[in-house]
User: Fold this.
Amino acid sequence: MQILKNNLYVTCPLCGSNQYSVRYPATTHESPDTPIEKDFNYFRCTSHYLSQHGDIVKCSQCGMIYNNPQPSSQELVDIYKEVEDPLYLEESEARVRTFKHSLEQIHRIVSPPGRLLDIGCYTGVFIETAATAGWNVEGVELSAWAAKIAKEKNIGPIHNMSMDRLDIPPESFQVITLWDVIEHLAQPSEMLTSIHRLLKPGGILAISTHMVDSLAVRILGKRYPFFMDMHVVHFSRKTTRRILEDNGYEVVSIKSHRRVLRMGYFLEKLYHKVPFGKGIIKWLTSKKCISNLFIQVGLLGLVNIYARKK
Assistant:
């Protein structure tokens, strides 16, 4: 099993400056000299390690916010290859409901038929939803476990590899999606450049991520749940527009992201976060009439960003 052991100090992923100040101090007790060893459990989509992170800093030049120090890009790739996440499978119906809403937003800009590539497709829930709507779909996924499940759906090619190994002709897709991916990338500009090459002229890039200029972050500060070791960059609306424009896109719109959760899953996350009331939460979770309900979670600073290739 791959164990993540090292943290490196890095320059700003947006402008390259090495000048920064600590914006959100660490909530864990590790240090660059003695980091906590982490296996793939820290990097699951359903990880319980919410708001557990090292120092999060703000670039003094451009205002970009990112984790510093952070794991090397290669370490992150190696550990994502090993991720297994059975809990994600239990939440597939909630994910379908979430993705249907995001797909509706895409369809206000561009409609099928056409080719759609989902980068970080995990078990293929979104591309299955998109295929049902008429898209010719493909997926890219590092996790061997998740890619195998996606391939078994037989809905389109699944590439179990990193983007730098992907052999697809330029200008192949009308739409490329990055759902909950960009915040995991130490060098997001490299990904945006690769996507730009693969998009047709005027093609649409769809991204979901959290916004550090949201009300939730202003209220919760370093305890914001999506501040995690696996999220190494944190965008605001200003830095989102800059990185997209710098890489050949124009922002079409930024919309609220509607996240649907099963109540039992939400309560399980809550159980791991609150210091009291765990008995009541556990009792509620045990009641299927409650735990099988679906809820919509808002006010967490999550957005969908749509941009067009120039």
Observations:
- The two ends are 43 Å apart (CA to CA).
- The chain has eleven helices and 13 strands.
- The mean pLDDT is 91.
- The CA atoms of residues 196 and 304 lie 18 Å apart.
